[in-house]
Amino acid sequence: MKNKEHYCLCVFYEDIITRPKEEVSRIFNAIGMNLNDVEHSLEALKTDSQKGQFGQRGSESVNVTETEFERVDRWYKHFGVPANSNQTLEEMKKIFDI
Questions:
Q1: What is the reported pLDDT for 47?
Q2: 54 or 96, higher pLDDT
Q3: What is the distance between the alpha carbons of residues 6 and 81, in angstroms, rounded to a whole number?
Q4: Where are the alpha helices (DSSP H) in the chain?
Q5: Does residue 73 sit in helix, strand or coil?
Q6: How many CB atoms lie within 10 A of CB 24?
Q7: Which one, 24, 36, 37, 41, has least CB within 10 Å?
């Protein structure tokens, strides 16, 4: 990944959902926040701040059309991002070398 040296942490939504306490702790460590606040922050994850924009929380349904996915893929290609909307999480993590 280009300019990887400028980043201190890579976080994936899927990891936050499957391991919230561990991931929030990693984020707090990376930005120097007090780990005593992790539990309080986990409470915020219980609320859907996106108000169902991308589907009902906990469901596999997505409110994004195939046309929108294609648009994102075109932007990825335009900017030289080695990703596409059909990649698995593991494939995406390989791009970031994590």
A1: 79
A2: 96
A3: 17
A4: 13-18, 20-31, 38-44, 66-78, 89-95
A5: helix
A6: 21
A7: 36
